[in-house]
Design a protein that fits this description.
227 residues; alpha/beta; 8 strands
């Protein structure tokens, strides 16, 4: 297990945001990874996924939105969250430039974190970011199918990787597939059979959650060849 390095995302006149860097000895990429709406960067999934990424050579820079850092439960409104994404990506770029100047920089996140990252990228390119990684993109609320949350994706100009579970209640595949097809060849969809929005699988699937996370990390590794 690789120990996480405690860092912060600084900004003048704004509370620093906590961050964690998990890096293998010789990384092949750095992923700036935001957490989901209900749990922060230290959540078990985020910890284990970060380790799985490190095992395939991908360093991860995990960080927290202002509401999570302040101990609030209600997620930040989009303008605040998008501004935080930009701050975090800028800090990740600084770390990349200091330690591994030739590495590709990626950005993304789990659920809400991924959607806020794509919103930021759609509004204005994220400096130095070569591609986006979505870990369970939340296409719609549970039991409220729709595609409005994906409208901004057409304005993203860099490659995108969607890691999705086939049982994700927040992204029905009958809705997600057509949306991604319309976005063209810059989009890659990787499916984890039987996984839900938290990437949990049932025992009858024949796999466990660690196997799912390892498979997702391998998908990121393969996708990097095209970025």
């Amino acid at each position: 297990m690789i120990e996480a390095e405690e860092l912060v995302v600084p900004e003048a006149d704004v509370t620093e945001l906590p961050a964690l860097l998990v890096a293998p000895a010789d990384p092949i990429a750095l992923l700036c990874l935001a957490h989901g709406a209900g749990a922060g960067m230290r959540h078990d999934f985020m910890e284990r996924f970060g380790q799985a990424l490190a095992e395939v050579g991908v360093a991860s820079f995990r960080w927290e939105f202002p509401y999570m850092a302040a101990g609030r439960r209600r997620p930040d409104r989009a303008p605040v969250a998008v501004a935080a994404v930009r701050r975090a990506v800028a800090r990740a770029a600084e770390i990349r430039d200091e330690r591994w100047p030739d590495l590709p920089l990626l950005a993304g996140g789990k659920s809400f974190g991924g959607r806020m990252t794509s919103t930021a990228a759609a509004e204005r390119p994220l400096g130095g970011v070569a591609g986006l990684v979505f870990v369970g993109f939340p296409l719609h609320p549970a039991r409220k199918p729709g595609v409005d949350r994906a409208a901004h994706l057409a304005d993203v100009s860099i490659p995108m990787l969607f890691l999705q579970g086939t049982r994700d209640a927040l992204a029905g595949l009958d809705l997600l597939r057509p949306v991604l097809d319309d976005l063209g060849s810059s989009v890659t969809l990787h499916l984890e059979e039987d996984a839900d929005h938290g990437f949990h699988v049932r025992k009858r699937s024949g796999r466990d959650d660690d196997a799912v996370r390892a498979s997702m990390a391998e998908a990121v590794h393969r996708w990097l060849e095209s970025v």
